[in-house]
Amino acid sequence: MSEKIINITKGLVRAEFNFWVGLYMDKFYDGLEQKKIVANKCPKCGDVFVPPRKICGKCNETIALDQNWVNLTDTGTLTNYTITPYKINERGSRKVKKDQIIGMVQIDGSNTTIVYKLLKIEPAEIKTGMKVKIEWQEKTKGAPEDIKGFVKV
Amino acid sequence: MGRQVCVASAGFCEHASKRSDVNMPELVSEAIADCLAKVPSIGIEDIDAFVNGNMPAFEGANMPELWMTDWMGARNKPLMRVTTGGTTGGSVAIAGYYSVTAGLPGIDTVLAVAFEQQSQGDTSVGLASVAYGEISCLNSLGIPLEQLSRLLSAGAAIGVASYQATNYMRRSNITEEDLARVVVHNRHNAAKNWYAHLKMPNLTIEDVLDTPYISFPLRYGMVCPASDGVCAMLFTTEEKAKDMADIPVYVNGVASVANETAILGYDGAGAGQLDPSEQLGARRSSELAYGQAGISFPRKEIDYAEVYSPFPNQELMWVERLGLFEENTATEMYKNGTTAINGELPINCSGGVNSTNAIGASAMERPAEAALQIMGKAGNQVPRTVHTSLGHGWGGALNFVTLMVMSDEPQRKWR
Predict the structure, then answer these.
(1) pLDDT at residue A129, as a whole number
(2) Is A90 helix (H, G, I), strand (E, B) or coil?
(3) Pairing between strand B79-81 and B49-53?
């Protein structure tokens, strides 16, 4: 029996996706553009969501679009972290010169966490529960990367 | 024997070509709210389990059921996803039926949700992922991937349906005008249905025939749109349904049957069948479902049918293959008004898939509409009382048919 190897060099189709974020996330990104954290609050249990969402899964309560909005500060608490010597968002095995810290941060006044890099902090001084603050990009554009990362207060 | 299952409610969100005001889980939550609004005595906390489904990879979001758990009210509850290509909605509905009829402890009321937000993705790419099952079969026969381009170049599903259409036209001796008549029937109906997508109350046969061909004999004006939309159905036991709804709808027969996938076979592998309009799967699934429901004369006993017809030739084909009309007579029935809303056997009063097609949801919208017609709550309600109705789905890779037969009285026990 002969063996035939098929190499596919070119795809036949191109995939294009557009993701609609919805009106709740729209408000959130508009907030980021103005260097503000916009959250919303479940009218039933009082949980505050960053980013905002339409339905509170805990109470199955629909949070109306025109109310329950809260503006939060740009400070928060580090609830969890990891330290990695590898580059993020790049091919796996590339190491960075300096270990990077990525952490879960609970913005003050919210009941959720968001994950970002921790900047200007030595791995030795990192501690769960420490207070951190958003480092904004100089020029914001209404996107998640408007938050460069978190620095210690 | 399983438990008797009832449909207590069904709901929709508003369908459009771009629902860019909502993300996927938000869109889903709209149909669930509409479904539950029709059963005011219960709330989302009374639902015991969830079934959910859409086309795989159409929106580029995998495992969306996990993302939207909170938006469905499914947090910490049993949740299952079913996806079977074009019939996804029908399979999700049948899975909802199975979940109730099984009689598991604590699982009486099940919410089935089928959705698609097509504006986010690329339909041809999505369909290619469905067709991949067939591509790998062909590869194993030594047929290269390039053969697929013959299918895709004709515009995804249309490439498949055009063969079906030409075969059907030759077999039944009908003209393009007859196809256009079905389109007009559907789009006029859609104009009276609140959630429908293509509402065209003034469309004429000439308008349809004035549009260019995509792939002979199908023209732009004849094919379904790509919609963003969601459908939800609430399945429960007979006892609970009597409390929830004024007219509980009894699900008396379900079937999902596949016969050989045909068209790619034409390209290379050789097909087990010569005529894609033959549709053995439809014939077999109707035998099964009618048998369960105790229906011997579908033409007499079924008062309303929703068939899955993205293309007009399919509507004519399905109503014949499902035993609603004699072979080669469907065209005549559309001409003489038998299938109109005040006719003897109204078909697709919602406007059908031809007017509204959020693919993952479409095959569930058929039984959902059929159930609402019995309840008297449909968007474009048939004036006559509907006792028994039929909801049909088509898709899979190509020849997969789902059926749900519903009635305002329970399953006959003497079978």
Answers:
(1) 96
(2) coil
(3) parallel
Residue A57 pLDDT: 92
Task: Answer whether B401's CB lies under 8 Å from B262's CB.
Answer: no
Name every residue whose Cβ is closer than 8 Å to that of residue B343 and which is 6 or more positions away in sequence: B337
Q: At B117, which CATH number?
A: 3.40.47.10
- For an interface test with B, the pick among A2, A20, A59, A111 (most B C-beta atoms closer than 10 Å) comes out as A20
Backbone angles phi, psi at A106, to 5 degrees: -95, 110
Domain count, chain B: 1
B292 close to B415: Cβ distance less than 8 angstroms: yes
CB contact B275 to A (< 8 Å): no
What is the extent of the structural domain holding B337?
5-121+228-407
Helix (H) or strand (E) holding B207: helix B205-209
Give yes or no for residue A88 having a pLDDT over 90: no
Judged by phi (left if over 0) then psi (alpha if -120 to 50, else beta), residue B153 lies in alpha
Question: What are the respective helix, strand and coil percentages of chain A, to the nearest 5?
Answer: 10, 35, 50
B202 found inside a domain: no
List pLDDT tens digits, range B118-155: 888 877 677 666 666 666 666 776 666 666 555 544 44
Closest Cα partner for B392 from B322, B311, B345?
Answer: B322
Peptide bond just before A51 cis, omega within 30 deg:
yes
Interface contacts A/B by beta carbons within 8 Å: 79
